[in-house]
Amino acid sequence: KGFSSTFTGERRPKGDRIFEALGATDELSSAIGLAGEFSSEKGHTFVDQLHKVQCMLQDVGSNLATPLSSAREAHRKRTSFSERPVLELEQWIDSYSEQLPPLRAFILPSGGRSSAALHLSRAVCRRAERCVVPLVQAGEADPNVAKYLNRLSDYLFVLARYAAMKEGKEEKIYIKSEL
């Protein structure tokens, strides 16, 4: 009948922004899964990190599916989202960034299949973040969920560059069109 239930048992229309955010994070996990498969084929050591991210996205989904306005304390405890995963992403970003050449131009999604799939994941992550921010602003989701998605998109960008570098693939740069 066009309705679905949150973790708290509340019935909401399927078009509710909570379900939009859940769908976007699910799509993000799928995109990361694809990027992980391509990266695994190339022997990248960061594939375990991508798996950990997918598990964290399940936790993100649990938090989103538990609107704070209807959650009892037991629900909140079970689905809380801490800042720890955000800090871990920042450490990973720093670790890979140190190994990359400085960015001197806007790069286009490219650099081989692993890199391109990571860029696609980054774009999906940005959309998921745009879906989550209004929920955080409305007090329905933990602010750390939005922070996590924000840092995750940065991580995916850096990782895409790292994958291209490790595979010896060229990153295509933006060139302004002559009109």
TrEMBL record:
Catalytic activity: cob(I)alamin-[corrinoid adenosyltransferase] + ATP = apo-[corrinoid adenosyltransferase] + adenosylcob(III)alamin + triphosphate
The keyword Transferase is assigned to this record: yes
Keywords associated with the record: ATP-binding, Nucleotide-binding, Transferase
Membrane-crossing segments per the record: none
Residue ranges annotated for the Cobalamin adenosyltransferase-like domain, each copy included: 1-163
Biological-process GO terms, alphabetical: cobalamin metabolic process
Pfam families reported for this sequence: Cob_adeno_trans
Molecular function GO labels: ATP binding; corrinoid adenosyltransferase activity
Secretion signal, residue range per the UniProt entry: none
Description of how the protein assembles with itself and partners: Homotrimer.
NCBIfam families, per the entry: PduO_Nterm
Family: Belongs to the Cob(I)alamin adenosyltransferase family.
Role noted for this protein: Converts cob(I)alamin to adenosylcobalamin (adenosylcob(III)alamin), a coenzyme for methylmalonyl-CoA mutase, therefore participates in the final step of the vitamin B12 conversion. Generates adenosylcobalamin (AdoCbl) and directly delivers the cofactor to MUT in a transfer that is stimulated by ATP-binding to MMAB and gated by MMAA.
Protein known as: Corrinoid adenosyltransferase MMAB
